[in-house]
Design brief:
Layout (H helix, E strand, L loop, with lengths): L2 H27 L6 H24 L15
Length: 74
């Protein structure tokens, strides 16, 4: 793992807490007449989407460097 992948993993794990809190409270407030519940769900979706993207960066495989062909001239 490279340093960038480790940093992405750490930030993704840190973002799970606020995203989960917004999700839980957004579901709880969704039945109220105010629109605060829907706003909290949108914020939760954005935070958890960012965390998912960072997890994808952290666990993706690096591409192997291309091998030059033997018949190519330098």
């Amino acid at each position: 793992m490279s340093g960038g992948q480790i940093a992405a993993l750490i930030f993704a794990i840190i973002l799970l807490l606020p995203g989960g809190c917004f999700l839980v409270f957004g579901v709880g407030f969704a039945t109220d007449s105010d629109s605060i519940g829907m706003l909290m769900l949108l914020i939760a979706a954005a935070i958890l989407g960012l965390a998912a993207f960072l997890f994808w960066i952290a666990f993706r495989r690096r591409q192997a460097p291309r091998q030059p062909r033997g018949d190519a001239q330098p």
